[in-house]
Fold these 4 entries.
Entry 1:
Amino acid sequence: MKYLFINSATANLVVAIINNGKIAYIYDNNDGNDTSSKMMPVLDEAFKKSELKPKDIDKIFVVTGPGSFTGIRVGLTVAKVMAYSLNIPIIPISSLEVMVSGNGGTALINARRGYVFAGSYDGNLNSLYPDSYVLMNDHLLKPYVSYDSFDFETIKPNIDILKVVKKHENDKDVNPHLIKPNYLKLTEAEEKLNNDRVS
């Protein structure tokens, strides 16, 4: 089986092609806010280097969030167009699960203003603390995070793409038209609109 994996939910763009249980190609690089211009060249390189064509892909695994609103939209749009036009099954994946897929644990993404996107998983990637948008010091989150040692700048994700794909390869695929970003919160524009309506 040949799979395409796309994660553009954070500054670290990851595109991988898995061929019969082995990584045939991987791009894993911090591109900052340059995901939109990098995505297509990286995909082109992925297919050339793995000597495959898009129509050869049996399933697409795409990270739907939480994370960067723009990044999520870029990766999800590419995945949805490929899935629809080539009739390829598409499977949504949590960015937080991917971040700790190496050995389980708690993933935190800085959501600003004292909030985080948080999720905790065991070594088999079973959810222990559901993906949430919460205050960093939320009492329900405290058992899962060592605040004394936590620093967004130094904590690096421990990613095992093959483990994530293996866990989800038998998930029921989603209609490309129905798959949606998992932002976990309203965009700033939506929040402002809601506040304007209330006031």
Entry 2:
Amino acid sequence: MRKLVWDNSFRRAFKGRTRNDRNLQDRIFDTLDELVADPFQPKLKTHKLKGRLDGLWACSVDYDCRIIFFFASDPQEDEDAIVLVDIGSHDEVY
């Protein structure tokens, strides 16, 4: 099983992005549920990033909303983690 870890930068970006949009917030939570279940399901369009974001991954919430994350392991709990780093439009996060 995987767990989600919300980095502080993700928390700030999430609050700013969803402040006045409850519908977007619901879509993000649905995407996060799917990400934990299977990060590589086709609907998420998960892909590895290159360049200055090398080592990170991205998935799509909708047409113009991306979540940036990386995979980590937690040896103490014998569990894999998905660390959420940023969220925003294509131009904001890339």
Entry 3:
Amino acid sequence: MRTIDLSPLYRSFIGSDHLASLIDAASRAEKQSTYPPYNIELLGDDKYRVTMAIAGFSKDDVSIQVEENTLTITGTKKAETEDKESKERKFLHKGISERNFERKFQLGDHVKVLAADMENGLLHIDMERVIPEAKKPRQIEIGSRLLENQ
């Protein structure tokens, strides 16, 4: 019996309830690099946080963009030839990766990016699902009529 690993659904999708689109997008997301490492947290009923470990990157090196339902985080370091301090440094071991990256997350319907902050080498991006009033369930009273001219 074959088992289906649904972990890709939890790695790249935030607040989406459409299983078919999730499975389709998860197959595309599997082609992404695993760098930089990240966490996705559920902070409340409709509140989420993505935390990425981006040691060595400054605020100026990181770009965050939301287009339609895609959150894109890009990190670009300047070339080491431009940094004269790095010319003087000699590493015996260099295990902290500072390579450029691009990470994309599919956002669910009505998920809005609220804020981003960077602290101690961690980038935090807070999001919330804000359902419009027109989409929320409403109670219909029995016997009520729709009056055209009120």
Entry 4:
Amino acid sequence: MGILSWIVMGLIAGMIAKLLMPGPDPGGIFLTIILGVVGGLVGGFIATRIGWGTVDGFNLRSLFLAVGGSMLLLVIYRLVSGRRAT
């Protein structure tokens, strides 16, 4: 999958993760895109390591893994940023 496809999938995954986990997060749309793209990479890496096969192409399974990775990163981001604020 090309870099443009990863960015588009990251944008979609980040928006879906934000819809599934609403709340006040600083950073806006740019942070959502970054979390989505990195979450897609994290989700694909974890899926490959646990034996779910490779992530290749723009399909529903890849989107599901990217959303899962984005949600994981969003939780970690909220935990880290919450500790800095206090």
